[in-house]
User: Fold this.
Amino acid sequence: MQIRAEKANGRQFGCSRIGPMKTKLLGIVFFCAFPLTAWCQTRPYQPSWASLNQRPVPQWYDQAKFGIFIHWGVYSVPAFADPHAPDGEAYAEWYWYHMHNKNGPTWAFHARTYGADFHYQDFVSQFTAKLFDPAQWADLFVRSGARYVVLTAKHHEGFCLWPCPASWNWNSVDVGPHQDLAGELSKAVVARGLKMGFYYSLYEWYDPLYLHHPRRYVTEHMLPQMKDLVDRYHPSILWTDGEWEHPSSFWKSTQFLAWLYNDSPVKDEIVVNDRWGSETRGHDGGFYTSEYGKVNGKNLSDYSGVHKWEEDQGIGRSFGYNRMETATDYKSATQLIHLLVDTVSKGGDFLLDIGPTADGRIPVIMQERLLQIGQWLKVNGEAIYSTRPWRQSAEGDVRYTTRDGAVYAIAESWPGRELVLTAPKPTRNTAVTLLGPDTPLKWREAGGKLHIELPAFSPEASPLQAAFVFRLTGVN
Assistant:
C-alpha cells in the first residue's frame, strides 16, 4: 500500500497524525504522572540535572560491557548511502533526509532506481519483516557474548516499530509488517536472559506537528510515546537521540527523567544515556556516549574511571543496512575485539551495531562477526565482564583490566617467546596464567620489569588469535 504524502513548506510527510483531541488527552494523561512541585519534593529525584545526575548508573550496565545496537526501519528498504562519504553522510538510516539534497548521491540513486515521483513513505509497503525470526536473533546475540540489546524503536523518520497510538498509520502494526516488532524482539531477548532496551529519537525530521507546533509536539507526541514504550515493555535501557536542535528544557527532559527514576515500573533497573538536549552530551544524564570515537570533537575515553561511558559503532560505516558497503568496508573480527578491549580497559561499554534487511534478515557477514566475537569472549570473557579499569589502562599494545584481585594483561598480538610488562610489579606470590589453555606460565623479574616466558606454539593455528589474555595475580 502507499501512504498519502502530505506537503508542508515544500517537505513531504509520511503519516496522518492522531486527532488533536486524542493527542491532547494523551498529553494530559502523561502529565498527570508529573505531580505538583510540593509533591515532587518528597521524591528521591527532582526534575533538575543537579538532582538527576546524582543517580548512579545501575550496576548491571557497568558489568555488561558489550551490547548489540540494531538500526531497522523503513530506511532498510532503499538501504543506500555512499560508504565513502564524510561523517554522517555514510549513514543509510538518513536516507530520507539525504534525499532532499538534489545534488547528492542519495537523490541520484533514488531518481535512477525508483523515479523522482516515488516518495519515501511509499517504501513502507516493502518493509515486510517477513523473514524476521526474533528467537533466531536472540540466539545470535547470546552466542555473540553480548549482555544487552538496543533496538531503534523510532529513528528520526518517525516510524515506530510498535503499535504506538501517537503514530497512527506510521508504525509497524498499522502498515508494513503489521507486527509489533519491538514487542516480539523484546520478549525473545528477555527470555534468553539478556537486557532489552530501545533507541528513541526525540525529534522527527518532517513531522508537521514538530515543524509547526514544536512545543505541542513535545507534550502531545514525544512524551506520551516515551512513556508508552516504558509502560508497555519495561525496558532496561532508554537510549535517546535527535536532541541537538533544542536544549533539554525544551524537551522537558528533566521532568520525564524524574518520573522515570521515581515512579516508572523500571525506576531501579533503567539506564539512560546523555542525549537529552543540545547541552547535555558529556555533561548530564546517565552514561556518556561516543560515536566512532568522538562526540562534538571530544574523546570520551578520557572519562576513564571518572564517568561511565559507551562507544557506539557499526561493523561498517553505516548503522542502518547499506547495500553499497562491501567486505572491505567492514571491520574484521580482530578489529572489533580490539575495540571492545580498548573500550573496556578505559571504563566504557561497547555497543556494536547491526543493520538488518527490510525482510528481517541479519546479513551473514554481520552474523559471522558477532559469532567470532562470541567465540573469543567464551574463552576470555573473565577479562571483560564485571571488570573495571586498572590504575593504568595501556602499555604498548597491551590493555589492562582488573577484577576480584586479578589484573588482566590483554595483548593485541602474540608477543613471541616473552611478554615484558613494566606496569605490574611482581611479588613472591605472583602467578601468571594464559587464558584459553589455562596454562600457568613461568616468570622472572629483571630490571624492574615482569618477564613472562611464553609457550612455543603458533597463534596462527588458533581461531582465537585476535587478542591474548594473561591473568596476573599477586602483583602490585
Remarks:
- Residues 388-475 form a domain with the Immunoglobulin-like fold (CATH 2.60.40.1180).
- The chain has 14 helices and 19 strands.
- The chain has two domains: 6-383, 388-475.
